[in-house]
Design goal:
The chain is mostly helical and about 350 residues long. It contains 17 helices and no strands. Helix 5 crosses helix 6 and helix 6 packs across helix 12.
């Protein structure tokens, strides 16, 4: 599992770097804490799948694009690195490694009304570099296995997207629900942010056209629509959308920490304890987990430890926040929350 942990670490570092470029170091640190301790990302770092590696290469591709975009005309090295990272994504999981970053870049340039900036990208040399890295492996495998191109590109890519051949379907609400649950506990911040009082500022359209929101929402919205339109759905498919969502949640957290650090922290313990204890009981009963665990007498104990860790996370975060140590409180709460998540994974 070392490779999986390295990809998780790489995704965290890339997310931090994007946060520094768009917002600053404090915001980037909060986003790193949010992403590392969110349920879906934490669980994915313990599961051997290709989705986390894909998330790393997608995030790296978009980081290098952003660096090239911010550098202006003298940015060919960053853009060439973008093509190299996209090739890594294609080698990892196929066409989606290039399609998802391409949709993000196209949407971002459209929202910003800056399609002329696409001329700065070295398309010819970049495409050649992309093909030089990605094509040889696919060519070699296709020569050794003539049935591979049809199976991989048609069955595993196009048919998986366009038809229910794999029988993993879901409604329009599937991925919003997955992301809301997967970003726990930080997704609990969003209702307060959406319905709370806001300071006067630019209109919604003007705000979305600003550089940082435009880039992050251009990453989230097209990707979410793409995965929702797909006929085959699995929870880990949306892992590449978690870095921008962590950065967006970090914006809300940063403002709350500055304006009212005690208000949101003191509301969390009861909510989290109910959610944690309830989900543990329901999942354990549905999958008969308690029947096998109770023989060793550790099932209820592990559940109690998990609940205690979840409650302790919020209590410690609240105490540190009251003393003005906002980032320390956030980090401490995140570490204990991850320990609680690991306990839940052990129980189920």
């Amino acid at each position: 599992r070392l490779g999986q942990l390295l990809f998780a670490l790489g995704t965290l570092l890339v997310t931090r770097r994007i946060g520094i470029l768009l917002f600053g170091r404090r915001h980037a640190k909060i986003a790193l804490i949010v992403l590392a301790s969110s349920v879906l990302f934490f669980a994915a770092s313990h599961i051997l799948t290709l989705d986390l590696a894909l998330s790393f290469f997608v995030a790296l591709t978009l980081l290098l694009f952003l660096k090239g975009y911010l550098a202006g005309p003298a940015s060919s090295r960053s853009y060439l690195g973008m093509f190299v990272a996209a090739a890594g994504g294609v080698l990892t999981k196929g066409l989606i490694g290039a399609v998802l970053p391409a949709m993000t870049i196209a949407c971002f340039l459209t929202v910003r009304r800056e399609w002329r900036r696409a001329r700065d990208i070295p398309w010819i040399s970049g495409s050649l570099l992309f093909l030089l890295i990605a094509a040889p492996w696919y060519a070699a495998v296709s020569i050794a296995n003539p049935e591979f191109p049809r199976y991989f590109f048609l069955h595993e890519q196009l048919e998986r997207f366009a038809t229910p051949v794999h029988r993993h379907q879901g409604g329009w609400w599937y991925y919003p629900a997955v992301l809301a649950a997967g970003l726990m506990p930080w997704s609990l911040m969003l209702p307060a942010r959406l319905f709370g009082r806001r300071a006067p500022g630019p209109s919604a359209v003007e705000a979305l056209r600003q550089e940082a929101p435009a880039f992050l929402w251009s990453w989230v919205v097209p990707g979410l629509l793409f995965f929702t339109a797909a006929q085959s759905k699995l929870p880990l498919y949306v892992l590449p959308l978690m870095p921008p969502l962590a950065l967006l949640i970090a914006s809300a957290l940063d403002r709350h920490l500055e304006q009212a650090p005690h208000r949101w922290l003191c509301l969390w313990p009861s909510v989290l304890l109910i959610v944690f204890a309830g989900s543990t009981a329901v999942i354990g009963r549905r999958h008969h987990a308690w029947d096998s665990i109770d023989q060793a007498g550790v099932g209820p104990a592990l559940a109690a430890v998990g609940v205690a860790l979840a409650g302790g996370a919020l209590l410690l975060g609240y105490v540190l926040a009251r003393r003005g140590r906002h980032l320390a409180g956030l980090a401490a709460a995140a570490c204990l929350w991850m320990a609680a998540c690991f306990t839940l994974l052990t129980v189920i």
